């Protein structure tokens, strides 16, 4: 395909959104490098220590940042679909509800609401079904982690009702 006498690749401009993604990836890698630098003396006698995996992750993120920047400069990313805002709002609302209600309502109720609002974000808008299903599933998870595995999860009125 040509636009006049120019090939299609010559009409493409660098992708600004991809450059932002590359910068964010590089920033995350920088934060990991900075955080790991505080643990440098903890390796002891072995070359494998608490800094090995974070270093590997940081190098991978830095490599992805460079690769993303190169592809952004070439402008060869596929066209992105329009972002739907409503599902993101449902999911973020579910996360906010869980964070706000975790200590007050306990794990089962707050995580059940997160489940229901996330399901609503994916198109299942029957909250009268998804809220009870989410609470039951979350309660089963709470029982497994809290009672069987002896891990501490916040207990609310529902958990105190049964245990």
From TrEMBL:
InterPro entries attached here? DUF1468 (IPR009936)
Domain DUF1468 spans what residues? 20-154
Q: Does the keyword Transmembrane helix apply?
A: yes
Q: Where are the transmembrane segments?
A: 16-36, 56-73, 85-107, 127-145
Does Transmembrane count among this protein's keywords?
A: yes
At the top level, the lineage of the source is Bacteria
Keywords of the record, alphabetical order, are: Membrane, Transmembrane, Transmembrane helix
A Pfam family hit: TctB
Under what name is this protein listed? Answer: Putative tricarboxylic transport membrane protein
